[in-house]
Amino acid sequence: MKVLIVGIIVLALAVAGVSTYLIQTFSGEQNVEELQKEAQKPKIKVLVAARDIRPGETITLDALAWQAWVDESINKQFVVIENDEQAADRTEDFNGAVVRYLIIEGEPILAAKIFKREKSGYMAGLLKSGMRAVTFAASPQSASGGFILPGDRVDMLLTHDKLRQVLKKRRGGKPAPPDEPPLLLSQTTETILRDILVLAVNVVVDVVEGNSVKTNAITVELTAKQAELMITARTMGKISIVLRSLERPDSESDKPSFTTDVEASPFLSNLNAALEELEKRRRMAGGKKEEEKVEEKVVKKVEKKEKTVPVVMPPKPEPPKRVIKIYRGDKDPEEVEIK
Question: Top-level CATH class of 39-122?
Fold first, then answer.
């Protein structure tokens, strides 16, 4: 029993000693000053969304709120105040502004995500400086089944048969010669623009519910030159809009990309190869026949020349004369020809 009492007394003294040490440590003048400085620091507040604000929505005062923020994490793009007297005036600056992109509840209000309407419409305010909005007719078949939504990135493709039209024009509308090989290459699809921002689908700039929209038209953001290119392209053939992945590839080739109908169809590809081989053999055979024709023409020309040039026969040699000599006395011999 005495041991237990002694133990309790020792424990009580230890607790008292520790408590005294902690009080002296944390209640010193230096620590008190630090606490006072911390309390005197200005309380920074940041303008945030009081609720989700959708693209195209006009901001009202009830959609905004001021939230205390840690000074060390303040971004220079945030809208901040240091006292409550500034809150009313600063909030009024954003009353009536239009939202470009979705702002979720509690997210700081950034100038880049809103614009003042004044006299311009929403789409003009949505466009970046120097950009154009161009709209294309679309269907689920030509626009990824209706899964393209505002804010997505797409590629623009053109399908046309201009090669066949050019060849037909060069022949003046006449049918192809019988010895001309058949042209299998007719349809071509090529990627003409990549990584284009979708501004709106139909007249929807933001999809609140669902993951798809029945697509009749798609509006995209283009530079002035891209706008000219696409407006020209849609008069040449069929425009298709292809949805891109949210994950950007580390590297993507900028080389022109296209695919022909011969590449798309194994049958046409094999048939085209067979026709090319046949044409090659025909040309080789035609070359041999041409050589034979040339040789035949040369032979005929030589023979004709030989017939037209007169042949001069050399004169026949005269037979030798048979002569005998007759001697008479001392006279010279007399030659007599024997006939």
Answer: alpha beta
